[in-house]
Amino acid sequence: MTSGRVLRHGLMDSPIGGLRIVASRHGITGIYMENHAHPLDSGVLGERLASVADDPGIALCAGQLAEYFAGTRTSFEVPLDAQGTEFQQRVWARLARIPFGATRSYGQLALELGDEKLTRAVGTANGRNPIAIVVPCHRVIGADGSMTGYAGGLGAKEFLLRHEGILPEAEATLF
């Protein structure tokens, strides 16, 4: 998975729980939520940092994520180094183009890639996106507007979509 790359990782707090930010010398390789469906084995995460501030790339990413959660950032400018197949890389590049506050369906992404029959493959690649939030796979929803699976859990996806104004705020209940 890491193909001999030296990785480091640090943990930051966020409104959706801890985020583990993983980086190589070339950029961010992963952002994983505490209950991530496809976490890396701890043996391939590399050196665990005492603080995200101990690595300049991880610190930059953590700072931009903090700004995003504070509502002062709508896009990210961090070097990325995600590892995946050529098709996954193409899907992830499309995800990165979905602007803050907008969504796409799996079918729309498949059409953007040139073949509506790729919908299922797009869904699989979307689910394997290793760089949550920065590469906004949470902005992909079902064609009918439904909340489909999210590697960080549907609660995290709904939070992120509410944060971006895509979903209305949850209604307070008395019971």
TrEMBL record:
Native organism taxonomy: Bacteria, Bacillati, Actinomycetota, Actinomycetes, Micrococcales
Keywords annotated in UniProt: Cytoplasm, DNA damage, DNA repair, Methyltransferase, Transferase
InterPro entries in the record: MethylDNA_cys_MeTrfase_AS, MethylDNA_cys_MeTrfase_DNA-bd, MethylDNA_cys_MeTrfase_DNAb, MethylG_MeTrfase_N, MGMT, MGMT_N_sf, WH-like_DNA-bd_sf
Domain (Methylguanine DNA methyltransferase ribonuclease-like): residue spans on this chain: 7-81
Organism superkingdom: Bacteria
Any one GO biological process: methylation
Cited function: Involved in the cellular defense against the biological effects of O6-methylguanine (O6-MeG) and O4-methylthymine (O4-MeT) in DNA. Repairs the methylated nucleobase in DNA by stoichiometrically transferring the methyl group to a cysteine residue in the enzyme. This is a suicide reaction: the enzyme is irreversibly inactivated.
Active site per the UniProt annotation: C137
Remarks, miscellaneous: This enzyme catalyzes only one turnover and therefore is not strictly catalytic. According to one definition, an enzyme is a biocatalyst that acts repeatedly and over many reaction cycles.
Domain Methylated-DNA-[protein]-cysteine S-methyltransferase DNA binding, chain residue ranges per copy: 86-166
UniProt protein name: Methylated-DNA--protein-cysteine methyltransferase
Chief location bin: cytoplasm
EC number assigned by the record: 2.1.1.63
Pfam families per UniProt: DNA_binding_1 (PF01035), Methyltransf_1N (PF02870)
Cellular compartments annotated: Cytoplasm
